[in-house]
Known about the structure:
Elements: E1 4-5, H1 15-26, H2 43-59, E2 66-71, H3 74-86, E3 90-95, H4 98-107, E4 112-118, E5 140-143, E6 145-146, E7 151-152, E8 163-166, E9 183-187, E10 198-203, H5 220-225, H6 235-250, H7 253-274, E11 278-280, E12 291-296, H8 304-313, E13 316-317, E14 328-331, H9 338-354
Helix pairs in contact: 1-6, 2-6, 3-4, 7-9
Amino acid sequence: MKKHNFYAGPSILPDSTIKNTADAVLNFAGTGLSxxxxxxxxxxxxxxxxxxQALFKELLNIPDDYEVLFLGGxxxxxxxxxxxNLMKKKAAYLNTGAWAAKxxxxxxxxxxxxxxxxxxxxNYNYIPKGYELPSDADYFHITTNNTIYGTEIxxxxxxxxPLVADMSSxxxxxxxxxxxxALIYGGAxxxxxxxxxxxxxxxxxxxxxxxxxxxxxxxxxxHIDKGxxxxxxxxxxxxxxxxxxxxxxxxxxxxxxxxKNEEKxxxxxxxxxxxxxxxxxxxxEDRSLMNICFVMNDEFAELEKEFLDFATERGMIxxxxxxxxxxxxxxxxxxxxxxxxxxxVETMQEFEKxx
Length: 355
């Protein structure tokens, strides 16, 4: 039976990424060695890093005054690297979920943190609007997609202070105007590669202005100067990321991805809204295209475990909601085919007939 992978992360990757990476584990670039055992300084791997950075820039139309970095430590290390490198005295944070809250907590080590708005009181089921930013903040931090709660900021914000975004779970899912951001970062394990590498897109002229000394490994300038090769990079995830970037280009780039993602999300949200057994948890206007969260309608709450077992038997993997929310979560990242969403919708309809 075909398995449909709805895991929230680590999550589904394109077939070509998995196959090409598996091949390189056995024999990388005709060297007769595994990609896991060659020198990262060798010409074969340097070529991988160079091409991955170039494709990243091409796919997102990144301006020339920005750099793309591949770093270890995941997005969670970026929670401290961002304020270390950018905060002089004060930063503004929008609290839209668990990861936004963790980023905010880390920033407090470096100065005054203003929580401009939060949706915590409603279990993060909407994106706050109409807040005011302190004009003297060094930057404004947002988390564009909230994997646990299924909300997403789907447009580039216009703000009058440097904008920083954690795009771990929606990078490459829709076009973005990189010039509106000072820095964009994310973990790779949703739309790009296996866990183990983080990407950073940073405007070079915002760095070096805090007046503080920064440990070498936590200074973005270190990694810019050394082309993400100051220390040994996570070679396997970077190689896999390159395969995904090539796949994205073959698919028609980011506009083509956005169209497919909107079609997948519409199919599933329409069924959630139609089916008497289920209801969505995120505010309609803030519904994520990447993580679709839903629960049983109140009068059918006792059927939750039965539906989970029913769906699992039919090949739906990873649809259990996060423990802090309950219910169900279908992650519909770029690599998830339309057919998988269709199979989940048919499973929901079959379960409805049963009850």
